[in-house]
Amino acid sequence: MADGIEAELKVAVDAAGASRLARLAALPGLNVTAKGDTRLVSTYFDTPDLALRAKGISLRLRRAGRSGEQTVKFSGSFSLGLAERPEFNVPYAGRVPDLSRLPDEAAVELTKLVDGRPLVPLFSMRVARRRWEIATPGGDRVEMALDRGTATAGSRRADIREVEFELLSGDRRVLFEVARPALAGVAFHFCTEAKSDLGYALLEGEIGAAEPATAEDADLNDDMSAEMALQLVLRSCAAQISANVAALRVADDPEGAHQLRVGLRRLRTALKVFAPVMAPGAADPLAGEAQRLSTEVAATRDMDVLIDELVTPLDGGGNMAALIALLEKRRKTARARLAAVLADRETGDFLIDLLAFTEARGWLSTDDIGQSLGLAAPVTPFAEHLIARLRRRVEKLGRDPDALSPDERHELRKRFKRLRYAYDFFEPLLPKSVRRKLLPRVKAAQDVLGVLNDIHMAHLMLDDVRAAGPKAGAVERAIGYCLGWHSARAKAIWERRSDDLTLD
Predict the structure, then answer these.
(1) 3-state percent breakdown (helix, strand, coil) of the chain, nearest 5
(2) FRET pair for 504, CA 20 to 30 Å: which of 186, 379, 387, 439?
(3) 263-308 pLDDT, tens per residue?
(4) Domain 4-203: which CATH number of 2.40.340.10, 2.60.40.10, 2.40.320.10, 2.40.160.10
């Protein structure tokens, strides 16, 4: 693109996905023009003390055949796969950077930052790039580029399989309109870093497989509007969901399923608590997809909890071993199904729709002129009012915990969970007294109800186990032992900690 603000959406794909995308010829409702293949060799430079990296700047020389280009990218925004950052390109086929060739504004800043120190090559990237130009009926244009190759830093290497959707003209919402059909049926995850970050990670030996990720703080403050808070909270939810989808695609770590389930619950909570400032029904499709995916994740997560936390720790001898072996087969089946779900088109569409909703302000109404007042309102009063309302709902149902039916106890657990996630979103905005006194009580209640719910789920899941063959008797005895032991445990927990469920 011309010098200016680079706007692009970047995703990583696996080898099968890259091979499929390489054959792209058409997309429904869009005009696709193949632009050919290019082999690119990019070398990244920095000072010996990495002064450019410290400022979020990347400087590279790129060669394509006999031609060359010098590019500098300055720090900008990078939210999941969506990047917007100032970029300057100049033709240049030299082997070392020449800052004087850059536009004055870039040259002056870089020269001052480098301050006479040498610029040394740190890592390189060799990729085969296949490009398409994709136009919408309205005339918006996006360049899609598939990069396949290798990053190298010394003796360390890493594969590159990335797809970039770069906005050539039009509104950036078109990035999602193009990416959704282009990535249909391809397992992908949003890139959270630029290619230069991959190189620096290689340089420092920090490259590893995707790992389960906990929620990132939204970092709200008193100066924000309700809409700014909404966007930051949704970004936090989307980051957690995307990271754990990626982690589960490469490993069976139980923490990945747990954190994905948490991320989906946080998203559903965010969509509910911010509903007063969103267009009616705007978030319904996202909430429905989050619920669908949560149900799929639950089958694996509940089996992980049953085996790892409720059955395996018990000392049941050979009987327990027979039960665990049977449950492990069920866990394997659940994990295989979840892997298929995470690789299917619906999950990919959901991830793109979530990012589009977050970054393109999908909550806006086309006819409610008063909505802007709610979105522009200070977030702190909004948060305080919301927390007070959610607290009242908990207190109303939890006045007499001993009188609750099983269904009511489950509803109380959901209300506590919603209150807890809302606390997590808005914690920096709440009075110290709330953070010091009330939040620990909410956490304690959630812990009690969480353990009791796990035990309840164990009963349901073990009641469904039917064993056959020579070990059937051992399995039945182990189930009886587990149910009896945990029933007694649940009774003891309730008698000892039921008072934790009241906030009065």
Answers:
(1) 55, 20, 25
(2) 379
(3) 999 999 999 999 999 999 999 999 999 999 999 999 999 999 999 9
(4) 2.40.320.10
How far is residue 396's CA from residue 270's CA, in Å, rounded to a whole number? 22
What is the CB-side half-sphere exposure of residue 8 using CA atoms within 13 A? 22
176 within 8 A of 207, measured Cβ to Cβ? no
- Tracing tokens 């193949």 back to the chain, one arrives at 34
Q: Where in the chain is the domain with CATH 1.40.20.10?
A: 226-501
Distance CA 88, CA 98 (A): 13
In angstroms, rounded to a whole number, what is the distance separating the alpha carbons of residues 53 and 156? Answer: 19
Q: At what angle do helices 226-250 and 379-397 cross, to 10 degrees?
A: 70
Rounded to 10°, the helix 345-359/284-305 angle is 130
Q: Which among 73, 174, 78, 86 has a CA at the least distance from the CA of 133?
A: 174
In this prediction, residue 78 has a pLDDT band, given cuts at 50, 70 and 90, of low
Residue 64 sits at φ, ψ, to 5 deg, of: -135, 100
1 falls in which pLDDT band (50, 70, 90)? very low
Residue 5 corresponds to which tokens in the numbers above? 């603000």
How far apart (Å, rounded) are the C-alpha atoms in residues 185 and 17?
8
Between 151 and 65, where is the model more confident?
Answer: 151
Strand partners, 143: 133, 166
Interhelix angle for 406-426 vs 439-463, to 10°?
140
For CATH 2.40.320.10, list the domain ranges present in the chain.
Answer: 4-203
pLDDT in the model for residue 504: 66
CATH architecture of 226-501: Alpha solenoid (1.40)
Catalogue the E-assigned strands of 423-464: none
How many other CB atoms are found less than 10 A from the CB of residue 439?
A: 16
> Distance from CA of residue 482 to its chain's centroid?
36
Lookup: tokens for 31: 């005009």
d(Cα 281, Cα 279) in Å, to the nearest integer?
A: 6
Q: What single letter denotes the amino acid at residue 114? A: V
Identify whether the C-beta of residue 195 lies closer than 8 Å to the C-beta of residue 8. no
